[in-house]
Amino acid sequence: MRVRVLGTAAGGGVPQWNCACPGCSGARAHPGWRRHHASLAVQAAEGRWYLVNATPDLGEQVEDCPELHPGPEPRRTPLAGVILTDAELDHTLGIARLREADAIGIVATAPVRHALLTGLHLGEVLTPYARLDWRPLDSEDRPLAEDSPLTVGAVPVSAKRPRYAAGLDAPDDADDAWVVALRLTDRTTGRSLLYAPALAAWPDAFQRAAESADHVIVDGTFWSDDEPLTSGFGSRTATAMGHLPIDGPDGTARRLAALDARTLYTHLNNTNPLNDPAAPQHTVLRELGVEVAADGMVIDL
Questions:
Q1: In this structure, how many other beta carbons lie within 10 angstroms of the beta carbon of residue 261?
Q2: pTM, two decimal places
Q3: pLDDT at position 231, please?
């Protein structure tokens, strides 16, 4: 299994179009600091790839990843579909950019599908352009494609809904499946990757999945719980916004350091000091053996 990291930023990207915080200003002055919205490209089989989340940066991310380029026929693309971890706009707006396809394959949990069809009216908007082929995503590990050694399963981590879905009637089986971590397993090698770009809690099921994974990539939106407050851009703590912080007594860094896996952070907010390569917080993570994922990184399992 080959995984390409297409982006590692939280909502708005780095830099964010309307922000002049130190992280965004630094990214404008130093292009190497720039980060696309958090997403992965996962190879399901030779010449067949799936996106994990479809971000507003989807077009640029495809162009930056040679494996996703079309050809040799004029309209042949290796992009087979999208797997969604949640229904947030930052992870779903890019689906509209796939409308030139004959069909768009979407793997999603029941509440995420419900939100996109009922809240965003995605079916009404896109079916005049392309057919939407929905496939279920739940705790069962299912092959990503008929000829693929790769399986995908969901680990529910949060009942946090996107704002536009706050008043929607939820499916009976929604529970915490509004936000899930993805468990990707290569049946040929037996190796696996756990991906959780949004993590509001660390339930037992997630701990078990993390302990059995070879690579764990998790939510690094905020360094500290009070970062949204001290940065001056928010009125709630990180945990109140649905993101466990990296540092602190309830932070995720030491949980990751205790795992027998390669561990990385993604989904960095523009206020996160880790956007600065020289920030001392990088030293803290290095001492714990935890990494910060970078756009363009390749992971082979």
A1: 18
A2: 0.97
A3: 94
